[in-house]
Amino acid sequence: MKFLVVDDSPTMRRIVINALKSFGIEDIVEAEDGQDALAKLQANKIDFVITDWNMPNMNGLDLTKTIRASEQWKNLPILMVTTRGLKEDIIQALQAKVNNYIVKPFTPQVLKEKIVSILKATEK
Amino acid sequence: MKDMDIKGLIKKAEELRALFILGQRVVPFLEELFSFVGEIQPLLEEINISIQENLSKMPNLSKQLSKVTEATELATNEILDIVDGVFYKLDILSSTLKEFESNQLSLKNFFDEFYKVVEEFKNGTLSPEKLKQELDSLETKSKDMLSLDTQINSMKEMIDNIRTDSSSIMLALQVQDITSQQIAAVNHLLNTVQARLNSLISKFQAGDITKVTSVDNQTTNVTELHRVIAFDPDAVESLTANAAKQDEIDKLFEQQKLEELLNPNEKDLPESSQKDLSEERVSQDDIDMLFKQNS
Which of A34, B92, B120, B210 is the Cys-Cys partner for A63 at CB 3.0 to 4.6 Å? Predict the structure, then answer.
């Protein structure tokens, strides 16, 4: 299973990747913003996207909308990991059809739970 | 007397004439001055508004930076505490390992002895009394071997603890992303203030006071530090808001807000609800509940 980790902060990408590796997930691709993520999606067969919201060039919300609008990737699991914790933001994310949402700072345990829950839901 | 009156009158008339001449010269200057004040008034008003706006932002900047320092300090202390704990656990692990190594040597000696007894028994060189004696001795030694399990379990537990500590460090390090967003927000605001003041000064210097236009507010929350950083201006709030737990969800459940929010037929929320939405931060548990309802 190939994961795409999208965050403009190299520190956060590293933290997420370390957590994924601790779950036994080794096949990981990185992207630093939404545009870069779209390029990586084109170039790789990605099975799961973990994205930040606040990013230059293209933010995580627009990335989600673009993915959902695409025939090829519309069912791709997307987990949003962000500092934005306002209900208004979460409703926007829901409307953009992200599969789940984590507020930073998060524990690796929470990340794992969300990934498992998304994968279970998308398997159905 | 009459002569003196006339002279005085002439003098007064000359003074009056001089006054009129001065008035003639001063009036255009005064007109110019009034016109200048009239023209400069919008600029002065803009400067005044700008200074007021920028001054009102300054305490907020200071508060934001203060929160960054506080968050960094907390995270650093948390990491230091965890690292202290890890060192302590490593000391325990190291001493347990030493005990284990010594027990492992005992285990080797036990088996050496055991094989020797078996060999002697096979060769028939061991009398039944001697065999019983040897077996009793081995039984006693084997009981000591039981502590190996305890030691292994203790080491496993310690390794798990250190793993948990590493996760906690990872959690604490996320503060770097959060505080960098906050600093980016402050930097963005400072740049905006600087650009605004520069624009006013350049207008003033150029004498271009007829066209007073506002500087466009930047809508994208992106700023350039050592790299381009997109930011959430309230990022640092996530550190405290995340602490809110189950009681928030229960409250939300009671209020039955979730269904209202997610009901597509009620997209136009009342103003009061929209205000609530924009101001209320939610915990991870609330978010889980929202997504559960939506799935």
Answer: A34
Number of domains in chain A: 1
Nearest CA in chain A to B286: A87
The tokens 């995340």 sit on which residue?
A: B242
pTM: 0.69
Q: In terms of CA atoms, which chain B residue is nearest residue A9?
A: B177
Tell me the shortest Cα–Cα distance from A32 to chain B, in angstroms: 11
User: What CA–CA distance (Å, rounded) separates A22 from B159?
Assistant: 14
Nearest to A98 by CA among A109, A84, A106: A84
Q: Does A7 fall in a domain?
A: yes
DSSP string, A29-56: EEESSHHHHHHHHHHS---EEEE-S--S
Q: How do residues A72-118 score in pLDDT, each as one tens digit?
A: 999 999 999 988 888 788 888 888 999 988 888 888 888 999 999 89
B196, two tokens: 């605004």
Measured in whole angstroms, the distance separating CA B139 from the mean position of its chain's CA atoms is: 62
